[in-house]
Amino acid sequence: ISICRDLPNIEVITFSVNGISDLEPLHQCQNLSELYLRKNNIRSLDELFYLKALPRLRVLWLAENPCCGPDPHRYRMTVLRNLPSLQKLDNQAVTEEELSQALVDGVEITAPPSRSSVENGWSQSTTSSAAGSTTGPESQLLSCSLEETDKTQEELDMKPVPRDKYSSFSPQEADCSCKKRNNVLNAILLLMKELDAEGLEIIQQTVARRLQALQKKELQEE
User: Fold this and answer.
1) pLDDT tens digits for range 45-102
2) What's the rounded Cα separation, in Å, for the pair 95 and 82?
3) Domain ranges (residues) in the chain
4) How far is 41 from 21, CA to CA, in rounded Å?
5) How far apart are CA 155 and CA 144, in angstroms?
6) Which of 4, 12, 43, 59 is most deeply buried (CB count within 10 A of its CB)?
């Protein structure tokens, strides 16, 4: 599916029965109007986050994926709440009544999937949102490799992640620390792309204060 990053003008995609679990490569397909993803391995409805930016998407077939969960009504309402321009979902026409009901029964998806464990087809962030509670920062983090983080940093003209950053840890500790650090970093970098000049100035001031505090702490420890 990663090939879709190089096909921004594609209009119809049929990826049914392909073991697909990640929809991020589709978010640049601005001309996409029909998307068929039946019988894949899409475990979280949070993947819809990447489809919300597709203005021409009218047909989506997502049935028989783990993300459909145990409640067909909640699943359909959540999809329609986040993709109200759909005319057909899972080979069934979308009605005006459903779109209105989706505003009440559907769950608004406002962040990318956390790539964490999913139970019964619903991710932690979606479940918490449905319950009206807020999730912790870690539940919203993107799971990414060092290469993915480096790519994001390159887009922002930043230095890549040093590979020996965690060399002093044991292999398991280094892997855990590296993943957590890069999850946090990649989430922050992605969000920075959405900020205007004023927002970036606030981030810059906050980072400067944080660096001063850390440097002061290091000096005290020495």
Assistant:
1) 999 999 999 999 999 999 999 999 999 999 999 999 999 999 999 999 999 999 999 9
2) 15
3) 2-105
4) 5
5) 16
6) 43
Residue 42: closest CA among 102, 1, 86, 71: 1
pLDDT at 150: 58
With 90 as the cut, is the pLDDT of residue 31 above it? yes
**Dihedral angle of Cα 190, 143, 24, 16, to the nearest 10 degrees:** -170
Average pLDDT over residues 30-46: 94
Q: DSSP letters along 174-219, please? A: HHHHHHHHHHHHHHHHHHHTT--HHHHHHHHHHHHHHHHHHHHHHH
Cα 128 from Cα 138, distance rounded (Å): 13
Task: Name the fold adopted by 2-105.
Answer: 3.80.10
Contacts of 177 (CB under 8 A, 6+ apart): 166, 169
H/E stretch holding 102: helix 96-105
